[in-house]
Amino acid sequence: MNVVLGVTGGIAAYKAVEITSRLKKAGFAVRVIMTRAAQEFVTPRPFAELSGERVVTSMWDDCTERHVEHIALADWADLLLVAPATANFIAKAAVGMADDMLTTVLLATKAPVMIAPAMNTDMLNNVATQKNIALLKERGVMIIEPAAGVLACGAVGAGRLPEPPTIVGEVKSFFDRRDNGVRSELINDCNGKLAGKKIIVTAGGTIAPIDPVRFIANRSGGKMGVATARAAAGAGANVVLVTGNITVALPTEPNIRLVSALTTDDMLKAVLAEFANADAVIMTAAVADYRVKDYSPQKIKKKANSFTLELVKNPDILRELGQQKQPGQILVGFAAETENLAEYAKRKLDEKNLDFIVANDVSRKDAGFDTDTNAAVIFYADGRAPEDFPLDSKDKLAGRIIRRLAEFF
Length: 409
Ligand code: CTP
Fold this sequence. Notes:
Elements: E1 2-7, H1 15-25, E2 29-34, H2 38-41, H3 44-51, H4 69-76, E3 79-85, H5 87-95, H6 101-108, E4 113-117, H7 121-125, H8 127-138, E5 142-143, E6 147-150, E7 156-160, H9 164-189, E8 198-203, E9 208-211, E10 214-216, H10 223-234, E11 238-243, E12 256-260, H11 264-275, E13 280-283, E14 290-292, E15 311-313, H12 317-324, E16 330-337, H13 341-351, E17 356-361, E18 373-380, E19 387-393, H14 394-406
Parallel strand pairs: 1-2, 1-3, 3-4, 4-5, 8-11, 8-13, 11-12, 13-16, 16-17
Antiparallel strand pairs: 6-7, 9-10, 14-15, 17-18, 18-19
The structure holds cytidine-5'-triphosphate.
Cytidine-5'-triphosphate binds at residues 264, 283, 285, 287, 289, 314, 316-318, 333-336, 348.
């Protein structure tokens, strides 16, 4: 889950450093935006160190993102958390001003917003601030109530930023509530048809080892596969998630069993071992089609000026499953294409004996590998017309695939 943390210029800005650290430890990806005033209290460095990401400090930094940066951050966020939120920030948010990076991202994001006001008691109690907070609440912004105590200015009263564990607790419970909502919606939509079904999902890319320190890999990071496994688990299935080389965090749902299989051969064995009593297999993995013919058990030393690796064909896992498939077992493939999408995807559907195939154009910047979004076309074996799923988050696309799978039971 991705959290954009906005830090505004109050004395409590130093607490945002601990918030960043705790969010990371809890497994969130964090990007920090600091206002100019926040940088008067803390430097960007600890945020960069703890988040592992460049801190955004201005609208006019050199942009390293693929898209316009404020839009990229706004899209990336699953939650925008502003802690501490000053009276000034709250006022700008209430009227929709966008005069710095944080307020611009706030206007551009579709993600839910959570803010933790922190300021002097009189500023907090001022009618203007109270009206602004009420207006934000009305618009669905979640407010973390300020704590009471001795404030930096010496006054005693409400206005303190709650301690970082409290704030991170609010973030976690927001995601728990959201995930539970998605789960019950999925179970409803699937009419409980996937409850208790055994579904194998593969994720990530398989690798072809060259020697003990080198391997050939592909660009799959496992996002789509993990999202699919979570959606299937959310719909009540017992999921076996077979992972190749992945860069995303592993899911922790109790009804997802994890199996690691780094090479194509390992993945074939892992999937076949689970297949006999499985109700469905969703092959999201980008399976390496070739392996290195002569794996070197010792590290290859650099000597010659040129070097040739001979590759030999790997088994096709899905084709193998298509041959073994029993009535009632459903097979779902993915097709990663850069051209002739419909033709190639339909050929795979047919040749691998699948029930449906999710085809995506991996040459698009906003779909396929390394992105949080994906667009796809589903081709069905039963003659139904292909179905277009326009660009959306991988979580949403995964939910749609699982809803379609449920129709087969
Ligand atoms: N697949 C598989 N075993 C392989 C290769 C692919 O099980 N050795 C599966 C993938 O997980 C995916 C589907 O087959 O669900 C299609 O994969 P894709 O890489 O698009 O196609 P290939 O069959 O490998 O064909 P090509 O690389 O020529 O496009």
